[in-house]
Design brief:
Blueprint: H1 2-14, E1 18-23, H2 25-29, H3 54-59, H4 61-75, H5 82-90, E2 96-101, H6 107-111, E3 116-118, E4 121-128, E5 134-136, E6 156-160, H7 169-181, E7 184-188, H8 200-206, E8 210-215, E9 227-230, H9 233-247
Parallel strand pairs: 1-2, 1-7, 2-3, 7-8, 8-9
Antiparallel strand pairs: 4-5, 4-6
Amino acid sequence: MFERHLEEAAEVLAGARRVAVLTGAGISAESGVPTFRGKDGLWRKCKAESLATPEAFERDPALVWEWYDWRRSLIAPVEPNAGHRVLAGWEGLFGDFAVITQNVDGLHAKAGSRDIVELHGNIWKLRCTREGTVEEIRDTPLPRIPPICPSCGSLFRPHIVWFGESLDPVVLDRAYRISETCQVMFVIGTSSVVQPAATLPLAASRAGAKIIEVNIEPTPLTPQADYFFPGKAGEVLPALDRRLREKRPAAGIDRLPDRRS
């Protein structure tokens, strides 16, 4: 049945022009990024709820930055896996292709994806608390904690959506537009319980898109998905990619990009 569903999903994908992908912590966990949920989740080892808040930053910005600097050091050596690289390669196969991610690790960009909607921000980016400007700084460890905006001397904060904060409405609106206009939506490695991201596949389905879910275990979305592939993205997506490329040869693309250098 698994092989038959792969073949059917590849057929659906081969006929699509507008494809969207929603990813969660599961795809990054395959690369070794610590997750915040599950039995070994980082949430259980650190009191993140007391650190990832505006109140915590106002109370002790150095402590908050020490925690984020530690997280950045864990993520820095991590490389994208085969699932990330397949998604990056698919940008050249479709007229309209975008990745919407709940992850903040930057692995989709590291794999070569360009059209990325980061719902929850990016751990490598810092935002000035006065001017709102955003800079990307990949130094680990950071040369100064807490970091200071070179333009105005105000504190930088992590460019992350914290507990108690709303998502950027511009970012969220774009995510909904992509979801509501795609023909196929992949939902990969997400628990499908975190809002508002969990509503995006439902919006896509209501607009007529086929939903293809890839996860190591069923989620609340699974009964509504057109196809559910139990397994790792790094294994399922390459298998699907091989079938897709047999049906729809890449225009000028002979192999997946290797962005590890």
